[in-house]
Design a protein that fits this description.
The complex is a heterodimer of chains A (164) and B (749). Chain A is α+β, with helices and mostly antiparallel strands. Helices cover 30% and strands 15% of the residues of chain A. The longest helix of chain A is centred in the last third of the chain and has 14 residues, at 115-128. Chain B folds into 3 domains: 16-23 and 447-589, Aldehyde Oxidoreductase, domain 4, CATH 3.30.365.10; 34-136 and 193-244 and 249-279, Alpha-Beta Complex (Aldehyde Oxidoreductase, domain 3); 145-188 and 284-446 and 596-741, Aldehyde oxidase/xanthine dehydrogenase, molybdopterin binding domain (Aldehyde Oxidoreductase, domain 4, 2-Layer Sandwich). Classes of the chains: A alpha+beta (164), B alpha+beta (749).
């Protein structure tokens, strides 16, 4: 085993990923997470880092139609994928997604830090058809922590959009 | 007469769109995607001792690493230890990061790696090696209770326990019914979703623009200036959004010091986002051991109250909270003895955490009252009513208002308390035991001096500024409502600016005082602006002879109440006077005269239903009703959210949260969000919040008492009492984990 384990400055990889409908080409070190790539390379700071361990859900994005914790995904492994972040939920003309609107109407956030992740989880949940009852919403939304405790309002907001 | 009512109506958050689109910038979002140095700390692996040697050579060899700071090469800072004392520091010497080789607690920052990329900084931090000289440490409060002491210096802003009254021991001996037991609450960690972080932008000419996770930007500004010897003009602190604070952001923490130090030394912008595990060594709610003894007559009237508390603190600061006073605030008795002591431990200083002290003391007091009711064979709610305090016996003052009786009545009715069987284990549903419990909550209504400025522009738009923070509480929204109603403008024409040290001075946002204080300051600024508008109008010969009371402000204009035809758009008054804008400054603070005569508190009656799986010991809170009497409610929508949030914290305190210490290593074990469980969506039922009408012009100019804390105060004991009612087992230690509910874990007698 070599005595010095310092990284040698690995070659940067070219990583094309479609983010919110736009193809983006990033030059990334292989150990860069999708979350850090979105935030630090693309400057898309809507996705939040809460724990960097996949335990809080603040970094949830929609990757090829599925909810993922972006802090647990290596960006280089998702070449050619499509990512939707909180910045891509509203329509191009600024019209909010119905769930964004419902979050405001139901006061489903306080500090707002977990909100991008809650919204991405909620949007995917609705698309997956996993929001039939309040208990089902509670269970499927339990990967997204909210320290302000807005849960009852989050459940109400998702339930309202699901029932439309 | 009143302008159109906006205060008191449910309004969506004005920052809602920014928060649901990801546009609201939090500390780590500043300079995202721009070249900025990234820093990563190294924490001490031992709890007590000193650093013998550090080897940073391998870290420095990592490509992209710019510098590694340690106590050996740190830049010079203020010679005075007191310069580290921030606005809310308790008595003692705050931790000075990288000050010298001493280790005062595990996880203490001992080095900072600064690199061109986050990945390089994180990796290099793992390559710093340290040789320590370890000393014996003490982290176990239970083993050190014998060293408890009364803090020699009272922490500013806290009220120490009052002098004893009567003869408690004799009264307990003589009382026909008594109850005595020990209770404890584990240390908890704030764990706001936003990590503690600081982004320092070095501007042209060397001035610093600091984005710091702080509940009051002026606290960071003053502390940074004092430590680094900088002029105020050279340091601007801007934090428009805070991803939760809950007290952890009251004091500038070491990441702020480290980031500023690195930025000054390297003359480059630096971002330091603490990893989640480091936040477990930053601040916590102190572990507290308590003893409660109650003596009562057979009809439940209390004759004696004793409540002693011993809490852990660090070796370097005497962190103090109000823990035991609540018991006598809620219940009068002729014989009372209250005490609060500290034990020095080799841990980081505790810090205020949502309603510091209150839910700890009330857990013990309200559990003890429930146990007394059990002995008396009395309804627990009836026992509270029998002992209702009409005056504040702790300070011997009258209450400005106290609608607690109404809160009990409304809460009990909504919950369906009547018909609750007195005996435990009386309700069962399938494999689950069902229990109902109740408890009382209280929190002091406070005001702090706040300044505010309002500017009206030529378009008839108003901009309001206060240096306080919206930590998720809804400050942006309620201040918009207050200014809009005062000036007769639609809310969309009012912009509120917060979290900038260039704005009018305000203290940290905490203690539930912001709505009452900042709200009154904004209202005052608006009143002065209106007076100035009237003066300008009258100079032009309009509304002659009118006073402000004669005027109605509506639809962006002012007019005599008696004659709508006199309406002048506010923008026209500016135009006629040849002005682009008009500015007025306001101020509000505590009314000292009123404080001499009155005491003021928010109260709550909390009712909880739990279901306990008899075989598994798993507790679920299935219903909760909180009836809250907290003066005037500015915005029922955000107010309800505040109380729900507090209730969720109560669930966490009651069932989940515990910072677990490995006393051999003197180190917290569960320093991540998987092993330190905060309530998740599935842990939280619908929570029913009722606001009791309480008209109280004495508590603050707007009649507001504040809501940030009251939601948690009575929730833990209500849940604990419900667990007893379900199972017949009295759990006197929080959190009520499965092994405690099943009686598998011994509790010290």
């Amino acid at each position: 085993m070599p005595d010095d384990l310092s990284p040698r400055g690995p070659d940067l990889l070219s990583v094309p990923i479609t983010v919110n409908g736009q193809e983006r080409h990033m030059r990334l070190a292989p150990w860069t997470t999708l979350l850090d790539a979105l935030r630090d390379t693309l400057g898309l700071s809507g996705s939040k880092k809460g724990c960097d361990h996949g335990q809080c859900g603040a970094c949830t994005v929609i990757l090829d139609g599925r909810r993922v914790n972006a802090c647990l995904v290596l960006a280089a492994s998702k070449e050619g994928s499509e990512v939707r972040t909180v910045e891509g939920l509203a329509a191009p003309d600024g019209t909010l997604h119905p769930l964004q609107q419902a979050f405001i109407a139901h006061d489903a956030f306080q500090c707002g830090y977990c909100t991008p992740g809650q919204l991405c989880s909620g949007v995917a949940l609705l698309e997956e058809g996993h929001a039939k009852t309040p208990d089902e919403i509670r269970e499927w939304m339990s990967g997204n922590l909210c320290r302000c405790g807005a849960y009852p309002n989050i459940v109400a907001a998702i339930g309202e959009v699901a029932s439309r | 007469m009143q302008n159109q009512r906006i205060i008191g109506t449910p309004q969506d958050r004005v920052d809602g769109r920014a928060k649901v689109t990801g546009a609201a910038p939090y500390v780590a979002d500043f300079a995202a995607g721009q070249p900025i140095l990234q820093a990563h700390p190294v924490g001490s692996a031992i709890a007590r001792g000193r650093i013998l040697a550090m080897d940073t050579s391998r870290a420095l060899a990592v490509p992209g690493v710019v510098e590694v700071f340690t106590h050996e090469n740190r830049p010079r800072t203020s010679w005075f230890g007191s310069s580290w004392q921030d606005e809310v520091a308790p008595p003692g010497q705050p931790l000075r990061p990288l000050h010298d080789a001493r280790i005062l607690h595990s996880g203490q920052p001992i080095a900072l790696v600064v690199a061109e990329t986050y990945e390089a900084a994180r990796h290099a931090a793992n390559l710093v090696t340290v040789a320590y000289e370890e000393e014996a440490h003490h982290t176990d409060l239970g083993l050190r209770l014998g060293t408890a002491y009364v803090p020699p210096k009272t922490r500013s802003g806290t009220t120490p326990p009052p002098k004893p009254k009567g003869d408690v021991e004799a009264a307990l001996a003589a009382a026909p019914v008594t109850h005595q037991a020990r209770y404890s609450v584990a240390a908890e960690v704030h764990n706001a979703m936003e990590p503690h972080a600081t982004t320092v932008i070095v501007e042209e000419g060397g001035a610093l623009l600091i984005h710091d996770k702080i509940q009051g930007v002026m606290n960071t500004q003053a502390t940074v200036c004092a430590i680094f010897g900088l002029a105020k003009e050279k340091v601007r602190v801007v934090t428009p959004y805070l991803g939760g604070g809950f007290g952890s952001g009251l004091r500038p923490h070491h990441q702020c010091f480290l980031a500023v130090m690195a930025a000054l030394a390297l003359n480059r912008s630096v971002k330091l986002v603490l990893p989640r595990d480091h936040q477990f060594f930053l601040a916590h709610r102190p572990q507290t051991e308590m003893l409660v003894a109650l003596g009562a007559t057979r009809d439940g009237k209390l004759t004696a109250i004793r409540h002693d508390a011993i809490a852990g603190t660090s070796t370097y600061e005497d962190h103090q909270e109000v823990v035991v006073n609540w018991t006598n605030l809620l219940y009068p008795a002729p014989n009372v003895s209250l005490s609060h002591k500290l034990v020095k431990l080799d841990i980081e200083s505790p810090t205020d955490m949502r309603a510091p002290g209150a839910p700890i003391g009330l857990f013990a007091a309200e559990s003890a009252m429930d146990e007394l009711a059990e002995k008396l064979g009395m309804c627990p709610l009836q026992l509270r009513l029998v002992n209702h305090a009409d005056t504040d016996e702790v300070s011997n003052k009258r209450h400005t208002s106290k609608e607690l009786r109404a809160a009990y009545r409304m809460g009990a009715e909504r919950f369906g308390w009547q018909g609750r069987p007195l005996a435990p284990r009386a309700m069962k549903d399938g494999h689950e035991l069902v229990g109902w419990g109740m408890a009382t909550g209280a929190w002091e209504a406070q005001m702090q001096t706040h300044h505010a400025r309002v500017m009206l522009d030529g378009e008839g738009r108003a901009t309001v500024g206060v240096a306080t923070a919206d930590i998720g509480t809804g400050t942006y929204t309620i201040l918009t409502q207050i200014a809009a109603e005062a000036l007769g403008l639609p809310m969309a024409r009012v912009t509120v600016l917060l979290g900038d040290s260039l704005l009018p001075k305000a203290p940290v946002s905490g203690g539930s005082w912001t709505a009452a204080s900042a709200g009154a300051a904004v209202d005052d600024a608006c009143a002065r602006l209106k007076a100035e508008l009237l003066r300008l109008a009258q100079k032009k010969g309009r509304l002659l002879g009118a006073t402000l009371e004669d005027l109605r402000f509506a639809d962006g204009a002012m007019a005599r109440w008696s004659d709508a035809g006199t309406a002048i758009p506010l923008a026209d008054i500016l135009g006629e006077s040849g002005r682009d804008s008009l500015v007025a400054d306001g101020k509000a603070g505590p009314d000292m005269l009123s404080q001499l005569r009155y005491s003021s508190h928010a109260h709550s009656a909390v009712f909880a239903e739990v279901r306990v799986d008899e075989a598994l010991g798993q507790v679920r809170v299935t219903r909760m009703v909180q009836a809250v009497a907290a003066g005037r409610i500015l915005n029922p929508k955000t107010a309800r959210s505040q109380v729900i949030g507090g209730a969720v914290w109560g669930i966490g305190m009651a069932l989940h949260e515990e910072a677990q210490e490995d006393h051999v290593l003197g180190r917290r074990m569960n320093h991540n969000l998987a092993e330190y469980h905060i309530p998740a969506c599935a842990d939280v039922p619908d929570i029913d919040v009722l606001f009791v009408e309480e008209h109280d012009p004495r508590t603050s100019p707007l009649g507001v008492k504040g809501l940030g804390e009251i939601g948690i105060c009575g929730a833990p004991p209500a849940i604990a009492n419900a667990v007893w009612h379900a199972t017949g087992r009295r759990v006197r230690d929080l959190p009520m984990t499965i092994e405690r509910v099943l009686g598998l874990k011994d509790t010290p007698a």
